[in-house]
Amino acid sequence: MDLETIRKYCLEKKSTTESFPFGESTLVFKVSGKMFLLMSLDSLPLQFNVKCDPEKAEELREEYSSIIPAFHMNKKHWNTIILNGQINAKLVREMIDSSYALVIQSLPLKERKRLD
């Protein structure tokens, strides 16, 4: 997957916005103001951070060398995904979907109902 494919996939999700709160080289996707994906525009190969269930995060890190604890994030809950060809597009989409869902689950009930 490339940057534009990931960008379009994220923006298809309900109430998603994109911004550059950390400077021009980090694209951030948020749902209802909370981050679910951060992507470095300077990294080659392309890489991004997503939120992940802690147990699943460990499993993925053990299975794929291109999934590592996220730099500058809570390493228990965030993974960095390095798109070097090891991970297929289906798994990339699943990790993005999971991150989005975890953030939705953390929102107040009123906000979750508004998104339904």
Task: Provide a compact summary of the structure.
By secondary structure, the protein is α+β, with helices and mostly antiparallel strands. The chain contains 4 helices and 6 strands; from the N terminus they run H-E-E-E-E-H-E-E-H-H.
Radius of gyration: 14 Å
Percent helix among the residues?
25-40%
| Gap from first CA to last CA | 28 Å
Which fold name fills CATH's third level, the topology? Aspartate Aminotransferase, domain 1
CATH class category: Alpha Beta
CATH architecture: Alpha-Beta Complex
Beta-strand percentage? Answer: 25-35%
Kindly give the count of domains. 1
In spatial order, strands of the major sheet run 1-2-3-4-6-5
Please state the structural category.
alpha+beta
Mean pLDDT: 94
Count of extended strands: 6
* Helical segment count: 4
Could you please describe the fold and organization of this structure?
There is one protein chain. The chain is an alpha+beta fold. It has one domain: Aspartate Aminotransferase, domain 1. It has helices at residues 3-11, 54-63, 89-106, 109-115; strands spanning 16-19, 26-31, 34-40, 47-51, 67-69, 78-82. Strands 1-2-3-4-6-5 form a six-stranded antiparallel beta sheet, with helices on one face. A hairpin with a 6-residue loop joins β1 and β2 (26-31). The longest helix has 18 residues, at 89-106. The chain is globular, with a radius of gyration of 14 Å.
